[in-house]
Amino acid sequence: MTGPVMMNQGWRDLTFLHWAVPPEEVAHLMPPGVRPDTLDGVTYVGLIPFRMVRAGIARGPGVPWFGSFLETNVRLYSVDDTGRRGIVFLSLDAERAAVVLGARAVFGLPYRWARMGFARSASGGTEVLRYDARTLGPKFDVPFFIFNGDKDLVTPIDLAQRYFDTIEAPQKAFVVLDGGGHSAMLTMPDRFLRELVARVRPLTASP
């Protein structure tokens, strides 16, 4: 690749989680001039948590403390008429507030602060990533949905319900997926997609 280098970054403990969706379901989220990139007729929504380690400006050395933090982003994949491919970020969350402020002020990136945590045992055999959705606050200006499997042992349904009850939104719904576990969107994708189409898609229609 050519051109100026704005930043250099080290990514550690990176995880890529992807869900296949029909391209027409996310086309309205694309900026002008691009469309969803597809593979075998579907496009993908990605959830990417990782540790940023010693990020630096341009080609300079990594910045101590400020350059190391946890990040999670939600992304789509795009392509334009020339075949040039790109990434469309739906969210960029970081757990270091100073980084969020700097990224927004210097680079104009829409970072948001969120509480996250990462831990590894001394043997390296246990890793935990913690994410506290309550840091986003209880009030939303957009519709709010929770899709929760009733067999979820990671996020028990009663815990999710208590969080849901605190939310204020113009429209909200708590959808129970019978027989679903923590990754119900993967183990019962047809049911999950039907619920999304039935409950969320009507809200995206133009008035």
Task: Set down the secondary structure blueprint.
Elements: E1 7-12, E2 17-21, E3 35-36, E4 43-57, E5 69-79, E6 85-94, H1 97-107, E7 111-113, E8 115-120, E9 127-132, E10 144-149, H2 157-165, E11 172-177, H3 184-187, H4 189-199, H5 201-204
Parallel strand pairs: 6-7, 10-11
Antiparallel strand pairs: 1-4, 2-4, 3-5, 4-5, 5-6, 8-9
CATH homologous superfamily placement of the largest domain: Acetoacetate decarboxylase-like
Q: Roughly what is the average pLDDT, rounded to an integer?
A: 84
Q: Can you count the helices? A: 5
Q: Helix and strand succession?
A: EEEEEEHEEEEHEHHH
As for the CATH topology of the largest domain, it is: Acetoacetate decarboxylase-like
Give the overall silhouette: globular
The overall strand count is 11
Terminal Cα span: 43 Å
Q: Cα-atom Rg, whole angstroms?
A: 19 Å
Category by helix and strand content: alpha+beta
Q: Main β-sheet, in a few words?
A: 7 strands, mixed
Secondary structure: helix percent:
10-25%
Ranges where pLDDT stays below 50 over 5 or more residues in a row are: none
Number of domains: 2
Question: What is the percentage of strand-forming residues?
Answer: 35-45%
Q: Mind telling me the CATH class of the largest domain?
A: Mainly Beta
CATH architecture of the largest domain: Beta Barrel
Can you put this structure into words, describing what you see?
This protein is an alpha+beta fold and 207 residues long. The protein has two domains: 1-134, Acetoacetate decarboxylase-like (Beta Barrel), CATH 2.40.400.10; 137-207, Rossmann fold (3-Layer(aba) Sandwich), CATH 3.40.50. Helices cover 19% and strands 37% of the residues. The chain is built from five helices and eleven strands, in the order E-E-E-E-E-E-H-E-E-E-E-H-E-H-H-H. Strands 1, 2, 3, 4, 5, 6 and 7 form a seven-stranded mixed sheet that branches. Strands 8-9 form a two-stranded antiparallel ribbon. The longest helix is centred in the middle third of the chain and has 11 residues, at 97-107.
